[in-house]
Design a protein that fits this description.
OB fold (Dihydrolipoamide Acetyltransferase, E2P); 34% helix; pyruvate-formate lyase- activating enzyme; alpha/beta; 13 helices; 443 residues; 3 domains; five-stranded mixed beta barrel; Rossmann fold
Length: 443
């Protein structure tokens, strides 16, 4: 059969879809170029916050419309939505043939084959996810030739008051070093030139491993192993809790021949009272000192963060402190979002929540302040040259541009020069900013 894929949510979710696609290809099925021209449609969903669930519902209903019109025979839904709301999914989407949770994605082939024969096996969701998955087809990826995501762990060990992910994804569990290094080696052999190391919290990698001789294999150990692999490639670590960024990690970033000097450190807020209410109170000092400490240890580093506005207890004075701290820290990239109360989380029951209108206005104020910082930083890059990885014809990303969350650099090639191909490194001279992107030329 041919299977059309719909990928929603974060990069970690996209890796799960790659695992399922790998199982399908290994079993002899093929991936359709478009869900509209497939025997089956697989929608991999996110359910982190309300807008993500709305997007997921829209895509599921669209797939069901295709089924009712006779364009496809089977609709399958996987990921966080059915994992978090199995009963609600059954009620809302009666035309869906297969639901797969976080821990059962390796059952995709059997479930779809059974559904294609007209036999429904709708649910396969365990309430307490505990597994990790290795890709069954080395090198299969949906990100293009140039880069790949290397998911090193599943689940989460934190208990942030606003976050539903631990309840959806389960406890933190690291993948085996042997499997990760084999996957990395396979990806590099297939032409990948950027490994993006991801997890809900990469800094905790190995925390669930046994100690031997008083030590355990941790993230820095894994990164040093990746450094030992042959070839010219980048290693980028995405998402680092402020209080868990160690001196050893920063030393690796400063000295590694492959490390991208880029740290995504989500501070969420800077007011001590708000951080305490978020159950991130132990990270107050690390949060306030994060930008200075990282920049001092790794000259030229790019810093990205995310912040939340409108959390319960955020007064105007506490918001003003956040705004002043962000102006002081001058992050290179920043994303802001208004608080969304999620059922089952402590924050959903907290008092003193600003109105949705106030939270949204504060979000806009944060982004206006960040835009001024960005304009200044972007202007300073004009005329300078940077190494970049070509990810599509005429499109590249510099070290300062992470996939999906940051901008890109569109470039031209001087007459008489061969254009660098996707998967190749090149040197670009920045000509001008273009919103949050850049325009450049091959130097």
């Amino acid at each position: 059969m041919t299977v059309g894929l719909v990928s929603l949510g974060c990069a970690k979710n996209a890796v799960d879809l790659q695992v399922m696609a790998g199982h399908l290809v290994k079993a002899g099925h093929s991936l359709a170029p478009d869900p509209d021209c497939a025997d089956a449609v697989l929608v991999n969903t996110c359910a982190f916050i309300g807008p993500a669930r709305e997007e997921a519902a829209s895509e599921i209903l669209r797939a069901c419309e295709l089924k009712r019109a006779g364009a496809v025979k089977v609709v399958a839904v996987s990921g966080c939505f059915p994992q978090r709301y199995p009963d609600k999914c059954a009620e809302l989407f009666p035309d869906v043939d297969v639901f797969l949770g976080i821990d059962t994605i390796d059952r995709i082939v059997a479930a779809l084959e059974k559904a294609m024969e007209g036999r429904r096996a709708r649910f396969s969701c365990r309430p307490d996810p505990h597994r990790v998955f290795d890709p069954p087809v080395p090198g299969l990826r949906l990100t293009g030739k140039a880069f790949a995501y290397l998911k090193i762990a599943e689940g989460c060990a934190h208990k942030c008051a606003y976050c539903a992910i631990p309840g959806i994804r389960g406890k933190y569990r690291s993948r085996s070093p042997k499997a990760l290094l084999a996957e990395a080696e396979s990806l590099l052999a297939s032409g990948v030139r950027e490994l993006n190391v991801i997890a809900q919290d990469p800094m905790l990698y190995g925390v669930d491993f046994p100690r031997r001789g008083g030590k355990r294999k941790d993230l820095v150990w894994l990164l040093r192993q990746l450094d030992s692999l042959e070839g010219d490639f980048w290693v980028r670590v995405l998402y680092s809790y402020p209080s868990e960024i160690t001196d050893e990690f920063l030393d690796w970033m400063r000295t590694s021949p492959h490390a991208v000097r880029y740290v995504d450190v989500p501070v969420q807020h800077t007011d001590p009272a708000v951080l305490k209410a978020m159950a991130r109170g132990s990270a107050v000092k690390a949060t306030l000192e994060a930008s200075e400490r990282i920049r001092a240890a790794v000259p030229g580093v790019t810093l990205r963060t995310t912040v939340m506005t409108g959390f319960p207890g955020e007064t105007e004075r506490r918001f003003e402190r956040l705004l002043a701290d962000l102006r002081r820290m001058r992050f290179d990239h920043l994303g802001a979002f208004a608080f969304s109360p999620e059922e089952g989380t402590p924050a959903a029951k907290m008092r003193g929540r600003p109105s949705a209108e106030v939270a949204a206005e504060r979000e806009r104020r944060v982004m206006r302040a960040q835009r001024a910082i960005w304009n200044s930083k972007a202007k300073s890059m004009v005329g300078r040259t940077f190494r970049a990885l070509v990810v599509a014809p005429g499109v590249a990303r510099m070290e300062s541009q992470a996939p999906d969350v940051d901008g890109v650099t569109r470039f031209t090639v001087p007459r008489g020069r061969a254009a660098p191909a996707p998967g190749e490194f090149t040197t670009l001279r920045i000509v001008r900013p273009d919103g949050y992107d850049f325009e450049g030329t091959v130097a």
